[in-house]
Design brief:
heterodimer; A: mainly alpha; 3 helical TM bundles of succinate and fumarate reductases; two-stranded antiparallel sheet; flat; B: about 120 residues; elongated
Chain lengths: ~140, ~120
C-alpha cells in the first residue's frame, strides 16, 4: 500500500550499489596501465619541488648550491630521479597520444588527423630536449 | 575514464601536463642523473646564477614549477577518488591537493619572483 504522503522518506534505504573493492584496478592489465599513468603525476610534483630547491640554492649562493649538488650526487637521489624519469617519460608518451582528443584543430572542414598532432608534439618534445641538452653542454 | 568537469582546474592541469611532458624529461635526466653521475659537466654556479637572474627565465621556471604542481593536484585528486574509492573524502582531498599546489606556487613565487638581483 503506497503511503499517501509521497514526501515521507525518513527511512528510505540507501540505493544499492555493488561495493567496489579497493584494489579493483589490479584485476586487469588495462586498469593497471591506467592507474600507473595517473600516478606519474607524483613524479612530476617530485621534480617540480626539486627544481624549486635548485632555484633557491642558486639564489642563496655558492655554498647552498654546492650543498644541493652534494645531495643530488648520492645514490638514493640518482635512483629516485631514475624512477622519476621513467614515470615522466611514460607521462609524456601517453600525454601526447591523448593530445589529439583535447585539441581538435580544423582548417575549414578538414580536421587535422591525430597522427599529425601527435607527431608535432613529439617533434617539439625532441627539439626542446635537444636544445636544453645542447645549451647545458655548451654553456 | 577520469571526470574532468571543472574547467578552471582542468585548464591548469592540462597546461601543466603539457609543459611537464615537454620540459621535464630532459631536465630530470640532466639534473638528477647525468650531471650527478659525471656524464655531463655542470655549467657551474656562475653561469647558472647568471641564468637565474634573467627575468624571462625566472618567469618560465616559475610557471613550469607551478603548473606542474597543479597538474599533479588535479590528477592525484581524481586518482584518489577512482583508484582508492575515497569518494566520501571528496572535500578534504580537493582541499589538500589544490591547497598543496597553491602553497607550492606561493612559495615558488616568493623565491623566484621576489628576489632582488645582487
Amino acid at each position: 500500500m503506497m503511503p499517501e504522503n509521497h514526501n515521507y522518506s525518513k527511512y528510505h534505504p540507501k540505493w544499492h550499489r555493488t561495493p567496489i573493492p579497493i584494489f579493483w584496478w589490479l584485476h586487469k592489465w588495462v586498469y593497471i596501465k591506467f592507474i600507473s599513468r595517473e600516478l606519474t603525476s607524483i613524479a612530476i610534483a617530485f621534480f617540480a619541488i626539486v627544481l624549486l630547491f635548485q632555484v633557491r640554492a642558486l639564489i642563496e649562493g655558492p655554498q647552498a648550491y654546492s650543498d644541493l649538488t652534494e645531495t643530488l650526487n648520492t645514490p638514493v637521489s640518482v635512483i629516485l630521479h631514475s624512477i622519476a624519469l621513467i614515470m615522466v617519460l611514460y607521462h609524456s608518451l601517453t600525454w601526447f597520444s591523448l593530445a589529439p582528443k583535447a585539441l581538435v584543430v580544423k582548417l575549414g572542414k578538414w580536421r587535422i588527423p591525430d597522427r599529425v598532432i601527435i607527431g608535432l608534439n613529439l617533434f617539439a618534445w625532441i627539439l626542446i630536449s635537444f636544445l636544453i641538452g645542447w645549451l647545458t653542454v655548451t654553456l | 575514464m577520469s571526470r574532468h568537469s571543472e574547467p578552471f582546474w582542468w585548464a591548469l592541469f592540462s597546461s601543466g601536463g603539457t609543459l611537464a611532458a615537454l620540459f621535464l624529461p630532459v631536465l630530470i635526466f640532466l639534473i638528477g642523473i647525468a650531471i650527478p653521475l659525471g656524464w655531463i659537466e655542470s655549467p657551474g654556479y656562475e653561469k647558472l646564477s647568471v641564468l637565474i637572474h634573467n627575468l624571462p627565465i625566472r618567469i618560465f621556471i616559475f610557471l613550469l614549477i607551478s603548473l606542474s604542481l597543479f597538474h599533479w593536484a588535479h590528477r592525484f585528486r581524481f586518482t584518489l577518488y577512482d583508484g582508492l574509492q575515497l569518494k566520501h573524502l571528496q572535500t578534504l582531498i580537493a582541499v589538500l591537493c589544490y591547497g598543496g599546489a597553491i602553497t607550492g606556487t606561493l612559495i615558488a613565487g616568493y623565491i623566484i619572483l621576489m628576489i632582488s638581483s645582487t
